[in-house]
Specification:
The structure is a single chain. Helices cover 45% and strands 13% of the residues. By secondary structure, it is an alpha/beta fold. The strands form three sheets. Strands 2-5-8-1-9 form a five-stranded parallel beta sheet, sandwiched between helices. Helix 8 packs across helix 9. The protein starts with 19 loop residues before the first helix and ends with a helix. The mean pLDDT is 90.
């Protein structure tokens, strides 16, 4: 029988800066027992929100990383026919070859359903999957059960997981799918929110370095023809690199001298475009 205990109220975590609107949609999704669908560009904290919920509510986190080739059954369970065949041939296993259940291994959704305690189930990048996978998966999550055909057994959730689903909006999701989720778009942080985020990660950071690094970061995000704009994690790593360099001075950023561009830009054309922009500012 599914335990519908909400497990508490989510109000943020130690390293996750939460705005009030996002907190409300997380808590109402738990109260309504509906999956929460998060959209937003990479690096806006969609995946980390699930980690923060698990930390805050002291629940285990189970992560299903969706692949384009994935079948729903892979997320539910796997029947290890190869191991069973080897056991039957060589006979050196403690498993009972006649008992197929010994060769059933739970997938990520199956693990969430069979866990002894309530979990947070993160289904990451659902837009990679086809429509049938998406809709069939939500059928399972609505019913809180699935069948293992090989042993004619129904697995029912012991505890209803808190379900967080992320999408990078690379592909449209079906209307039935959207209709069965609560939705929140996580916008890229504005400079004020970014200061709050950076302060969490670097509580003793020099204010001049914070202001100048954030200003330079947003300038670089506005460059034309950038395929992968630097995200929050790149800014955090960039500041870490700047503070590690004993020869670096914050005034360099105001002068257009931006070292370690490879921390911000991970694709060669983007890096080259950023390098040209920085060199142009130096010349000017």
């Amino acid at each position: 029988m599914v335990d519908n205990n909400s497990g508490g109220t989510f109000d943020g975590a130690t390293r996750y800066v939460l705005d009030s609107e996002l907190a409300r949609i997380v808590n109402i999704s738990m109260a309504l027992e509906m999956p929460l669908l998060l959209k937003g560009e990479p690096g806006t904290g969609k995946t980390m929100l699930a980690h923060a919920i698990a930390e805050s509510l002291k629940m285990p986190l189970i992560v299903l990383n969706v692949k384009s080739s994935m079948k729903l059954v892979d997320a539910l369970y796997q029947y290890d026919t190869l191991t069973r065949l080897n056991d039957s041939r060589f006979g050196d296993s403690s498993r009972d070859v006649s008992n197929i259940e010994d060769y059933i291994k739970m997938g990520k959704i199956g693990q969430a359903f069979t866990a002894d305690v309530r979990t947070v189930l993160l289904i990451d990048e659902i837009d990679k999957a086809d429509t049938d996978f998406q809709d069939d998966m939500l059928d399972v999550l609505d019913q809180m059960e699935f069948d293992i055909i090989e042993i004619d057994k129904t697995v029912s959730a012991r505890n209803r997981p808190v379900i967080v689903i992320t999408s990078n909006a690379k592909k449209d999701l079906s209307d039935p799918f959207l209709g069965r989720c609560n939705f929140h778009h996580i916008a890229f942080p504005d400079p004020d929110m970014m200061r709050r985020i950076i302060s969490v990660h670097f509580p003793k950071l020099d204010s001049d370095l914070m202001d100048k690094s954030i200003a330079a970061f947003y300038r670089m995000r506005q460059l034309d023809a950038i395929e992968k704009k630097p995200a929050t994690r790149e800014l955090i790593n960039w500041i870490r690199a700047l503070t590690t360099d004993p020869d670096f001075k914050p005034k360099q950023l105001a002068q257009g001298d931006l070292p370690y561009l490879g921390v911000l830009f991970k694709k060669s054309p983007d890096y080259a475009r950023a390098q040209r922009a920085v060199n142009g500012r130096r010349l000017n």
